[in-house]
Design a protein that fits this description.
The protein has 270 residues and is of the alpha/beta class. The chain has one domain: Rossmann fold. It is 48% helix and 16% strand. The strands form 2 sheets. Strands 3-2-4-1-5-8-9 form a 7-stranded parallel β-sheet, with helices on both faces. It has a two-stranded antiparallel sheet with strand order 6-7. A hairpin with a 6-residue loop joins strand 6 and strand 7. Helix 1 packs across helix 2, helix 3 packs parallel to helix 4 and helix 4 packs across helix 6. The model has no long low-confidence stretch (mean pLDDT 89).
Length: 270
């Protein structure tokens, strides 16, 4: 089976994109799949730094942690950017089950090229109309969707490019990250707008990761919620967060997850 390409794309910062990307990559590695990862934000290198912290922690503790093989691609020129990314995807595709690509939080040739190569495009959004504006505009009074926004147009272009190259399709999943338990009215309005827009431009809405201190605490050690043996200060918050992660991974409908459903789910649930 050809490697399944999962691209994390969003032009807004602070949505948990890189954290989500790392957890998806590590979840697949924990389940026994061979995973390649490409960090396209050479300036911040959040994904790459997470993996470096992970390798350092594992070395100091003398333990093994399932980890995606990770490379960083920096921007140079538009043409070389495109060629180098396509070449890296091709190199990983020959030996990996999945490729996770973390794109920059801005428009770029690297980001557009990754989107056009995606089998699954994941766009995390904070649960607010500030973030919703990335993909759609709403009426100020009724909160009904008026029109798709600029990022939705980029995805449309990427889908056309993908279909032109190999006839493939891009499964677009919008994750509702950092859901608030207090602003019930806002949650309902944002949810309604997402459902309305999803029918117009073709994406699926899925539950993401909540706002939890645990994600920030795990970064310096490069750990994820799946590294239970290495986490010494486990709490009920960890249990709830792991349940969220399992639901997130299942909602992506990844082909390898369906093919090897039981072993994969048991590995992540353990």
């Amino acid at each position: 089976m050809t490697a399944h390409v999962i691209v994390l794309g969003n032009e807004k910062g602070g949505t948990g994109k890189s954290t989500t990307a790392v957890h998806i990559g590590v979840a697949l590695a924990h389940a026994g799949f061979s995973v390649g990862a490409i960090d396209l934000d050479a300036r911040q290198r959040t994904f790459a730094r997470y993996v470096e912290n992970r390798a350092d922690f594992a070395r100091k503790r003398g333990i093994e942690l399932p980890t995606p093989e990770t490379v960083v691609i920096a921007e140079e020129t538009p043409e070389s950017d495109r060629e180098r990314l396509i070449a890296q995807i091709g190199a990983f595709a020959r030996g990996k089950d999945a490729i996770v690509i973390d794109t920059p939080g801005r428009d770029s040739v690297l980001g557009r090229t990754a989107m056009a190569a995606a089998d699954t495009l994941v766009t995390p959004l904070n649960d607010s109309f500030v973030d919703f504006d990335l993909i759609g505009q709403v009426d100020a009074e009724s909160f009904r969707v008026k029109r798709p926004s600029f990022y939705a147009e980029l995805v449309w272009d990427a889908r056309k490019a993908r279909a032109k190259v190999d006839g493939g399709s891009v499964d677009w999943v919008v994750l509702r990250n950092r859901l608030s338990t207090l602003e019930a009215r806002n949650r309902k309005r944002v949810g309604g707008a997402l459902e309305e827009l999803s029918k117009r431009i073709g994406f699926r809405v899925a539950p993401g990761l909540s706002e939890r201190v645990i994600y920030r605490e795990l970064f310096p050690r490069g750990l994820t919620l799946l590294d239970t043996a290495a986490i010494e200060d486990k709490s009920m918050s960890h249990v709830a967060a792991r349940a969220e992660l399992r639901e997130l991974i299942a909602s992506l409908n990844l082909p390898m997850w369906e093919t090897e459903a039981e072993p994969a789910r048991m590995a992540v649930a353990g």
